[in-house]
């Protein structure tokens, strides 16, 4: 993982973080209250111990019968499925719709696919089929606006660049728009060693600038832990 000591990221005031987060939370609740379950479309779910954002790229090895059937149906019908963060009991009710961009039989004989995040989904009425596959009624959430990275967050850009030189990351993301706050925040949230519940809380933020503020605080914690180790 990257040398967090090398990124010079300042910690913003606690008051500023709380104020901005409170404003964002209000907007977030208003968006959800405006979504009616009756406009949702039933989609299959793939709960996983991770958080994927729109634009995220996720290689998967498929071996369970329920997911082989799901992938086969998506490929035949041109459909998508929803990746949602799994929990000890259940899964998050906000996930990311993904499309299948590539597939291949791997050297171990398993089916490999590349899933790419399309947009955030609010999930309603989850239920499980007899074969174990989860379904839910999924409604599109608004796409985030494209916002230029403010100067005081350029440290996060340098951190993401340091991660992108690693072969595994570069293989997934050959091009990243380092000027876009939404993309920088999404990719850092996916790649940094943060608790999944923290990542999910960042996923549920609708303002990319607020997400960057929260990321600054988490990176500072990582730096402190690294110095104390």
What overall geometry do the principal axes of the alpha carbons give?
Answer: globular
The first-to-last residue Cα distance is: 15 Å
Q: How many strands, which pairing sense, and closed or not: the largest β-sheet? A: 5 strands, mixed, barrel
Along the chain, the helix and strand elements come as HEEHEEEEHHHHH
Name the helicity range. 25-40%
The total strand number stands at: 6
Strand order of the largest sheet: 1-3-4-5-6
Low-confidence stretches: 1-33
The figure for the number of domains is 2
Mean pLDDT: 86
Radius of gyration of CA atoms, rounded to a whole number: 18 Å
> Beta-strand level of the residues, as a percent range?
15-25%
Report the total helices.
Answer: 7
Q: Pairing-aware structural class of the strands and helices?
A: alpha+beta
Labels describing this entry:
single chain, 229 residues, alpha+beta, Archaeosine Trna-guanine Transglycosylase, Chain: A, domain 4, 2 domains, five-stranded mixed β-barrel, 7 helices, disordered N terminus
SSE topology:
Layout (H helix, E strand, L loop, with lengths): L13 H20 L7 E8 L8 E6 L2 H13 L3 E5 L8 E12 L5 E18 L5 E7 L13 H11 L2 H6 L8 H11 L4 H8 L4 H21 L1
Parallel strand pairs: 1-3
Antiparallel strand pairs: 1-6, 2-5, 3-4, 4-5, 5-6
Helix pairs in contact: 3-5, 5-7
């Amino acid at each position: 993982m990257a040398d967090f000591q090398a990124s010079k990221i300042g910690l913003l005031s606690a008051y500023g973080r709380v104020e901005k987060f409170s404003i964002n939370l209000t907007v977030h609740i208003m968006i959800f209250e405006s979504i009616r379950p009756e406009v949702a479309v039933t989609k299959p779910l793939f709960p996983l111990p991770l958080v994927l954002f729109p634009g995220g790229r996720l290689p998967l090895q498929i071996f369970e019968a329920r997911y082989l059937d799901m992938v086969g149906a998506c490929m035949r019908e041109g459909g998508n499925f929803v990746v949602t963060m799994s929990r000890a009991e259940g899964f998050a009710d906000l996930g990311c719709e993904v499309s299948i961009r590539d597939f291949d039989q791997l050297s171990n004989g398993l089916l490999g696919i590349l899933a790419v995040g399309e947009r955030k989904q609010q999930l309603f009425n989850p239920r499980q089929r007899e074969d174990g596959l989860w379904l839910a009624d999924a409604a599109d959430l608004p796409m985030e606006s494209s916002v230029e990275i403010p100067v005081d967050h350029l440290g996060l850009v340098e951190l993401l660049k340091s991660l992108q030189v690693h072969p595994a990351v570069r293989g997934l993301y050959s091009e990243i728009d380092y000027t876009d706050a939404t993309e920088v925040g999404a990719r850092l949230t996916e790649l940094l060693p943060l608790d999944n519940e923290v990542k999910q809380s960042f996923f549920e933020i609708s303002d990319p600038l607020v997400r960057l503020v929260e990321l600054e605080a988490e990176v500072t914690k990582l730096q402190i832990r690294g110095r104390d180790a």
